[in-house]
Design brief:
The chain has about 210 residues and is an alpha+beta fold. It folds into two domains: about 80 residues, Elongation Factor Tu (Ef-tu), domain 3 (Beta Barrel); about 90 residues, Elongation Factor Tu (Ef-tu), domain 3. It is about 20% helix and about 40% strand. It is built from four helices and twelve strands. A hairpin with a 2-residue loop joins strand 3 and strand 4. InterPro entries: ATP_synth_asu-like_sf (IPR023366), Lumazine-bd (IPR001783), Lumazine-bd_dom (IPR026017), Riboflavin_synthase-like_b-brl (IPR017938). It holds the Pfam family Lum_binding.
Length: about 210
């Protein structure tokens, strides 16, 4: 489990291709690798990956073909920065909201507005996911716990503060790029439960 509070953006220094997977080598800081062991879970752009090797603060992750297809890790190249968060430990402060590291879909950057007053990103997403996205609700964006801005039938806005831009890779994204999306699990459960109850009532009354 994760909190959606990105700890660092780290460079992908190598990508090794093999049958059905790619191995990512990510350069981390000594603070991030302290106590880290093989088998541990680390979120890369919000994707929960397993550490397969650690070598001089370089951390290796095997990314399966399905994950490469479903997330933007499939388009990640050497030199790109990924958002990194180590898994949640008991007793630590939770400043975001609970994320599983399981990406539901990707959203496409529709527009970026960067002025002296604001930094806004407009995202376009498959309309079926908008059932779970609400104004002022929580959402996971590349592993970042963020608040949803204005919504439409096919997308929503993000209003980013300078601290978020400094600590994450969201400022790297341009129009047409894909961003990993994790829907808030509690919202999804509530919406699905209500829709199921309403469907049963309609069936009974029909």
């Amino acid at each position: 489990m994760f909190t959606g509070i990105v700890q660092a953006t780290c460079e992908v220094v190598s990508i090794y291709k093999a049958a059905g997977l790619k191995t990512f080598e990510v350069a981390m800081t000594p603070e991030l690798t302290k106590g880290l062991v093989t088998g541990a879970s680390v979120a890369n752009n919000g994707v929960c990956l397993t550490v397969t090797k650690i070598l001089n603060d370089k951390v290796f992750f095997d990314v399966m073909e399905e994950t490469l297809q479903l997330t933007n890790l499939g388009k990640t190249a050497v030199g790109d920065r990924v958002n990194i968060e180590r898994s949640l430990t008991f007793g630590t402060e939770i400043g975001g909201h609970i994320l599983s590291g399981h990406i539901h879909t990707q959203a496409k950057v529709k527009s970026v507005s960067n002025t002296a007053e604001h930094y806004n990103i407009e995202l376009e997403i498959d309309p079926k996911w908008m059932h779970y996205i609400f104004y002022k609700g929580f959402i996971g964006i590349n592993g970042c716990s963020l608040t949803v801005g204005q919504v439409s039938d096919s997308g929503f806005m993000l209003h980013l503060i300078p601290e978020t831009l400094k600590l994450t890779n969201l400022s790297d994204y341009q129009v047409g790029d894909d961003i990993n999306i994790e829907i808030d699990s509690q919202t999804q459960v509530i919406v699905d439960t209500v829709e199921r109850i309403l469907a049963k009532k309609q069936l009974v009354n029909s």
